[in-house]
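Reopening this ticket.

The earlier resolution said the output was attached, but the attachment link was broken on my side. Pasting everything inline this time so it's all in one place.
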Amino acid sequence: MGQSKIVILEAEQHRRDYIRSIVSDRGYLPYIFEKETICLDNLMPLDPDLVISGPLSNDRVFRFVNSVKMMNGSLPILILSGDRAVRENAVSNGFDDVKVIKENVNPSEIYGAINLLLQERISGSGNGSSENPLIIGNSPEILKIKKLMLDLKNSREPVLVQGEPGTGKELVARALHYQSDRHDRPFIKINLAELGASSLEKLFFKTLPDMFTTSQADNHRLPSAAVCGTIFLDEIDALPSPYQSILLSIFEDGYLKPNKSDLSAAGSSVGRMVAAGNKPLEQRVREGKFRQDLFYRLNVISITIPPLRERVTDIPMLTDFFADKFCIDLGVGHIEISRKLKNIFCSYHWPGNVRELQNMTRRVLLNGDKDSVIVNLARQRKKNKSSVVSHKDVDTLAGISNLGKKLKNMDNLSLKSVCDDFLARTEKKIIRKVLDHTNWNRKKAAGLLDISYKSLLNKIKKYKLTR
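Inline output:
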């Protein structure tokens, strides 16, 4: 085996020389870069064994790690940084082969980290893989989901993933699989909404050679390869009632327990089922369209992915991620999305969620027509703002009819007090309407009302508004 190649990204000359001397003294072959974009553009041709990054801001190191992992999921990364947020970020992503150590440690510690990452790559003990999806975002909602997925690493319990279309339910399901101790086992997806009656019959009853295994009772069948990996049942809310009963019996007959041949191939591993639905299953249960007992079986652990409009702070990061991915797929140099366009993106309501943002970013980069996109999104934003509260709504909300009560007492009538009361009640009810419209996303509500976030909080306190 030849010299291990190590790419070094470091903007400061003295730190570049320091890291290069450590790498060279240990017999590794260093390649030095000052800028992230140039480094990334040369990464694939160099095909290194390890990447070392010097201190970067949290957002920049997050983007750099994501881009490296998009190009080569098994490539280990060592980050030299004293920033606590960077260390926490690396842990939350679930990659065993992304390590963070302080930049001012002694050479032996740096070498020890390099040696450990290279040995893990050779042994294949890390979970780095090109198939391991990246969950992009640092909003509280997404960080909570990332932490939960790490906690579920060795779990065998079924997981129910719910959220609007385009929020990334399959992405989360795949991340659950590839970050688990079964990441080397198959991940099998079955979209139940796409299966007709005959396909459902085959899935649950018929024998397909070398692909299905019989459960302990009856003739129900699921992919045998999945019993030692993950079986992902997408759009579980679309499963017809008769097959809901069959799926329930599969749980009761010994949920996805492997047969002897499976055990001989996978040791004592047991598979996991992950189900996802576009419509809340609780609602489907209330409507009588989904079995309550099956819902309880599936809902042992629940993950609800928020719509993009409720995680606005993640939009710039997602935009950069999709832009980098598009450039990598095309094999072109990295292209920056302007701050102006990102701000417009942040003010848009994204009915198609993350999927729509991805398509919009690709369209901007492919057509290069940013101005028309900005104009269209700004027009849509204005339309959304005006549609939240109409003039007719204002009259109704203000309670004009209640003015009659005040006018009955002409002895103590003040035009100023009547107007102040009218405006206060109008403001209060409009704010409540907008907060309900945004599902109490205060940042989004402030944008729609065209006031500052702090002003909105003060008004919520003033009017004692509660959810």
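Reporter confirms the inline version is readable. The longest strand covers residues 272-277. Residues 415-437 form the longest helix (23 residues).
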